[in-house]
Amino acid sequence: MPENPVLERVLFSEQQLAGRVAELGREISADYRGKLPLFVGILRGCILFYSDLMKNISVDCNMDFMCLSSYAGGTASTGQVRTMLDLRESIKGRHVVIVEDIVDTGLTLEYLMGNLKNRGAASIEICCLLDKPCNRKADVHPKYVGFTVENEFVIGYGLDYNELYRNLPYIGVFRK
Ligand code: PRP
Question: In terms of pTM, does the model score above 0.70?
């Protein structure tokens, strides 16, 4: 395992992440055959997961992105979601799969689901790499979940602390 002084421990290794992401890709591909899904990545945390997931999608699809922010650099959600970048295309009648790195309080996705439903999508599902249900404050239910995690602050593979550590190829528990 890699040693890194900012980590208490590694939670998911590169190999574990790759294996689970491949499984998710296969499952989603089977569910969306012939539906031309639109994968909406929520920047910035999704970036590594999104990229790896898409390499495991075997059906025709489209990609688009939004940039939302609610943590403002700290370790707790502010509850106020800001849209920094919006979708480029209309999603009217589209089968949308939201791709997130983590669902924590669920406040970001509660806001986003409401926002996207108003735009007339045919269906909207959530795919998140990590789900932290113990911290939930909103009624959101991701259909595709990579791993369920406890109430720990995790970094790496897109997840940051003060905009650092997103580039780590594995996920670890931050040493506070
Ligand atoms: C993180 C993460 C999710 C959200 C989840 O984004 O990427 O979008 O928080 O938290 P919640 O369920 O408590 O709302 P963040 O606002 O930190 O922005 P980032 O993606 O740029 O890191």
Answer: yes
